[in-house]
Amino acid sequence: MSTTNRWGAPTGLTGVPRLLTAARLRSYLDAARGDIAAALRLYDWNIMASAAVMATVAMVEVVTRNAMDTQLVDWARHRGDDSWFEIIPIEARGLEDLDRAQRSVENRGVSTEYHDQVVAELTIGFWRYLVAQRYLTSLWVPALHKAFPSGYRDIRERRRGVERHLTTLAFVRNRAAHHEPIHRRDLRADLRAAVELATWVHVDAGDWVARRSPLEAVAARRPRVR
User: Fold this and answer.
1) Ramachandran region, residue 139 (left: φ > 0; alpha: ψ -120 to 50; beta: rest)
2) Where are the domains of the chain?
3) Structure pTM?
């Protein structure tokens, strides 16, 4: 027969609140109105939700970056260069990210599939940065809008939609990756953003994300709190 400790949590978890720290548990305790057992259940669920976010964003991120990379490769070749790494007209922040990714690959001594390895090193934040308004005429109109052929017909509206979804996914992914609370977020809205963005790349990609993402099931299991 199971017993509970003085907080009402299952025995064996007495030291967990102290180890997690009051600061980390604060949002969970606030949501549970001070009920430590309920707060710990919500914390446990938040871990599962974070894993589901990471899995979902991973699917969309790879599909999106590959589609964008394909268009940038084609754009560079039309300008007589095999690598867009060398000619992409972006500001210092983006160039620093690109240089960091290249150095990471070079330091590992990668001699094959160098291009693909660099692309894989670039974060979702980098790709979101490329679809910003400042690159509308230099990158979006001549190249990147083609990575999302099923998006809004107006390519300027399409850019805004892509940037909005990438911003949403980058934010929630970073929260999840750093073990931050996401229990107050509308995770179903995050899933809709993920599916829609993937669908804009290709309808099959959107269907794949919708079918394989664990986010809907996890969201449905969120513990009830007072």
Assistant:
1) alpha
2) 53-214
3) 0.89
